[in-house]
Amino acid sequence: MKNAVGRGGPGARPPLPPLGRPLLWLAAVAWIAAGCTWLSGPLPPWHAPRLAPLLTAPPGLAPPFSSAPSWIPSGAASPPLEHTNPTASQAALPPPILASQTVTQVIGYSHQGLPLEAYRFGDGPRRVALIGGLHGGYEWNTILLAYRVIDYLAAHPEAVPPALTVYVIPAANPDGQMKGVGRLGRFAPEDVVAEASPGRFNGAGVDLNRNWACNWTPVGLWRTTEVSGGTAAMSEPETQALAAFVTQPPMAGVLFWHSAANAVFAGGCNEPFPPAIELAQVYSEASGYPYLPAFTAYVVTGDAADWLADQGIPAIEIELISRERLDWEQNRRGVLALLAYWGTE
Ligand SMILES: [Zn+2]
After folding, report:
1. What residues does CATH 3.40.630.10 cover in the chain?
2. Beta carbons within 10 angstroms of residue 73's beta carbon
3. Cα–ligand 1 centroid distance for 63 (angstroms)
4. Domain spanning 103-344: which CATH class is it, in words?
5. Which residues contact 296 (CB under 8 A, 6 or more apart)?
6. Cα(279) to centroid of ligand 1, in Å?
């Protein structure tokens, strides 16, 4: 019965003239020979010039994505992709290209000349930033967590309130990432080549969370180890790039991920900064990481979040539980709560 439905009813199409069916087949064969190859084969010619720079890593750099598909734009700031061929139908385009709407920009370069990339979500008037990897490959799980957040926001654009422009900077210390992980961009935990501390510092050997102009000293502490705070406060190019990016114009809030102390801290330079404390409490409540009023294990000089408090910008530091796990569900809840807070304050 099923086959009869629609075939012989009153609305059925009249039979095609004798030549109709062969012509349809010829058209289909021609389309398969020409157009279909674009779906599985090389990109259609009108894409080649636009995509070539996006699919090629900058000279001397490893491809930035180890496992992601090659259509993800990389390297320098990428304009949103759009197809310009007026005759191509939407259906004939490879869908992954259209799905990649994430906008990236390079906000500066490291001591070794590697790019600091920011991924942008939303276009509201209030700017905020989520930053991973300030301590490079030594805290590589914070880099992977930031990429996880990037993927999440790309898949859930509704999570970004209309009032916000959210920047995610996954690797604020690309020199340290190269040292600890052996590549830029995305990587797998198996890629981590050095667990040792050198991956914590930038190419000049400076601890980038001892270089900021709050209680700066040339030699800082990391536990009981002395580390370089740089030749002067704000001496490092990574520090300068980040500082300029978050202060011009001033951001509404900044988050740094570190590992691993299982806590949330609020920035404040020698005195509590209530807006940062409020941020820390929002994140703590949603994520379950305890909020600690002060880091007491050792004296920290030249801290980024503390300097931001002096600029009137509330900043918090999230210390993951371990140096391997992403604590994804905790941070997903924390980020969503923070975005909602920033989006309505
Ligand atoms: Zn750290």
Report:
1. 103-344
2. 22
3. 25
4. alpha beta
5. none
6. 19
